[in-house]
Amino acid sequence: MLHTINKSPFSSDSFDTCIRFIQPGDPVLFIENGVYSVQQGNRFSETLAGVMKTNPVYALRPDLEARGIAKIIEGVSTVDYDGFVDLVAEHQVNSWL
Question: How deeply is 21 buried, as exposed, middle or buried, from its count of CB atoms within 10 A (0-12, 13-18, 19+)?
Fold first, then answer.
């Protein structure tokens, strides 16, 4: 199952809630303001590093660029809109709104 998170972890608990329910191997995709979760050096970096031990993590590149986020946590893959569509086509989606 693909988990998408679109809320900033600084204003919502979507990230924390999601990581309690993901299963090993489930991809996690950060979109919209959710991309603040993958910004390098924030207070969520350690938690996200733990998630990446068992789950692939992605961030939507256009949303990173729109928010001026240039440095992301090592190991997070970026995808464009085509990559986003590919992930959605490959997996059932659970959106954490």
Answer: exposed
CATH class of 2-96: alpha beta
pLDDT digits (tens, 9 = 90+) for 36-77: 999 999 999 999 999 999 999 999 999 999 999 999 999 999
Q: Where are the beta strands (DSSP E) in 1-97?
A: 2-5, 28-30, 57-60, 77-79, 93-96
Residues 66, 48: contact at Cβ < 8 Å? no
pTM of the model: 0.95
What is the spatial order of strands in the sheet that 2-5 belongs to? 77-79, 57-60, 28-30, 2-5, 93-96
Distance (Å, whole) CA 49 – CA 92 = 24
Query: What are the domain boundaries of the chain?
Result: 2-96
